[in-house]
Design goal:
mainly alpha
Amino acid sequence: MLTALRKEYPDSVYVFTTERGTPFTTDAINRLVKMIGQRARLSLPVHFHMLRHSCGYKLANDGIDTRAIQDWLGHVSITHTTRYTALSQTRFKDFWRRYLSTAYCSTSSARWALSG
């Protein structure tokens, strides 16, 4: 797909362009995402920043390192990135499986994490 775009727009450094070959403005992207959300009849208002959040959550759920997510999203503070990892359903279950053994886990909560 990117190869086809590169052939069609060989002089553009942008992946997504308008019909005139110029980059989309932030407002245009926001309007487009909002319109797509309305057409999909979603029950909540949609904005383009949600795409960024969904990428952060996806990376966290895939077990990507928090510092790597921070770097990819361009967060200055790790605090902003931890919101994605806090809601990750699978991230810490796998962590306990990989890094702890039953020899080190004497509490019932740790045994539950390993057996779950």
